[in-house]
């Protein structure tokens, strides 16, 4: 897991350097960029789309793997919250994309709001962690 984390951290530094070097590569919001429907893609769009989508896939599968092997009940609950939030975000986005027609370019904005499912799920992790941490005076 540390190797994967390091690889994604390094890739994010690479994207940061790319954006600093060429500020014109960012031409749309992340929600519009990762829909993976490229008609005339530029290399940045392809690279970032792969980075984003593989990152979500790694989170989904690694949380499942970690839940299977951990003996720590609190960690298992944290992982379940994280995986539920990611799957809720991704599956709702896919469902909306499949079931609706795009109303004048508004779909990426609507899909980004599904990230609130992930944020809400992570709130349970914060509440649990706060409850479990020793009180400091």
Verbal overview:
The chain is mainly alpha-helical and about 140 residues long. It has one domain (about 1-130). It is about 75% helix and about 0% strand. The protein contains 6 helices and no strands. It has helices spanning about 1-20, 30-35, 45-70, 75-100, 105-115, 115-130. The chain is globular, with a radius of gyration of 18 Å. The two termini are about 35 Å apart. The mean pLDDT is about 80.
Q: How many strand segments?
A: 0
Tally of discrete structural domains = 1
Span between termini:
35 Å
What's the helix-strand series? HHHHHH
Mean pLDDT: 79
Helical amount: over 70%
Radius of gyration: 18 Å
Largest β sheet strand count, sense and barrel closure: none
Q: What structural class results from the helix and strand content?
A: mainly alpha
Characteristic terms for this protein:
single chain, 137 residues, mainly alpha, 6 helices
Topology (SSEs and partners):
Layout lengths: L1 H20 L8 H4 L9 H27 L3 H27 L7 H7 L1 H18 L5
Helix pairs in contact: 1-3, 3-4, 4-6
Q: In summary, what is this structure?
A:
The protein is an all-alpha fold and 137 residues long.
């Amino acid at each position: 897991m540390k190797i994967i984390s390091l690889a994604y951290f390094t890739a994010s530094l690479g994207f940061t350097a790319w954006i600093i070097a060429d500020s014109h590569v960012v031409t749309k919001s992340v929600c519009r960029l990762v829909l993976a429907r490229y008609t005339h893609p530029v290399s940045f769009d392809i690279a970032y789309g792969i980075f984003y989508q593989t990152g979500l896939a790694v989170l989904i599968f690694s949380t499942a793997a970690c839940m299977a092997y951990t003996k720590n009940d609190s960690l298992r609950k944290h992982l379940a919250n994280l995986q539920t939030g990611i799957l809720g975000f991704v599956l709702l986005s896919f469902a909306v994309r499949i079931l609706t027609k795009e109303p004048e370019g508004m779909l990426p904005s609507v899909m980004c709001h599904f990230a609130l499912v992930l944020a809400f799920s992570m709130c349970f992790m914060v509440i649990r962690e706060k409850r479990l941490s020793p009180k400091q005076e």
